[in-house]
Design goal:
The chain is mainly α. The protein has nine helices and no strands. The longest helix is centred in the N-terminal third of the chain and has 17 residues.
């Protein structure tokens, strides 16, 4: 019985030595380390090792028609420099994507005149001097001229009349006689396109002392509700 138990114990110990660790291979064994070194060196590795410079294809670089969009902006410059370096080391013709030729959509339509680096690439001291001289030749000085004199068309100047008066609208200064003066004024004032035109006609026909057309029923000297306050305020301010 004891001999049988001893034989079973020896068998169990032997089985433990041959079973691989749970969860994967034993990374500390010399055999696995050698296999790993071979994989890193590209020998005996069945996965996807890193491609060398001579193995890079146009499709992997994003050549036109390969389904990959061309890089733009700073990425285009970086991709162009990387592809050029690969081509020089491999000795084989390699597609080099062009530098950024697509206008940056963020700054599209915005002037870069305030960007010193951008302007310095396009302009020189000589070109700026030529532009200044060209602007001087096209510069035109406009001399001020005298204000044209007010035309003497024979009509009363309602602005001057407003400034020569001081009574508020509705304060009677002149006597008015007749019946239904307000109704008559309402009918006659409707014939004028504006109160200014009514005031000019009123002054042209004897106003403010006389009101031949019945335009100033309250006798304040202002026809058809014409108000001189705007002209007075303009002068006072």
């Amino acid at each position: 019985m004891r001999f049988t138990l001893l034989i079973l114990a020896i068998g169990l110990v032997a089985a433990c030595d041959t079973v691989a660790p749970v969860g994967g291979p034993d990374f500390n064994t010399p055999a696995y380390q050698a296999q790993r070194e071979a994989q890193l060196a590209g020998q005996g590795y069945t996965g996807n090792p890193l491609l060398g410079p001579s193995e890079v294809t146009e499709e992997q670089l994003g050549a036109p028609g390969a389904g990959a969009p061309l890089p733009t902006g700073e990425n285009a410059d970086l991709a162009s420099a990387t592809a050029a370096a690969l081509a020089s080391t491999s000795g084989q013709p390699t597609y080099v994507p062009p530098a950024s030729t697509v206008e940056d959509p963020i700054n599209n339509g915005i002037s870069d005149e305030q960007d010193f680096d951008a302007v310095s690439d396009r302009r020189t001291i000589e070109s700026d001097a030529a532009r200044i001289e060209q602007n001087r030749q096209t510069y035109e000085v406009v001399s001020p001229t005298a204000v044209p004199a007010r035309g003497s068309d024979g009509q009363p100047n309602i602005v001057q009349y407003a400034l020569n008066t001081s009574n508020p609208v509705g304060t009677q200064l002149y006597s008015r006689a007749g019946f239904n003066l307000q109704a008559k004024a309402q009918r006659n004032c409707a014939r004028y396109p504006s109160a200014d035109q009514a005031q000019i006609d009123f002054l042209s026909n004897g106003g403010p002392q006389k009101d031949r057309k019945g335009l100033d029923p309250d006798g304040d000297g202002f026809a058809c509700g014409w108000d001189p306050s705007a002209f007075r305020s303009a002068v006072n301010n």
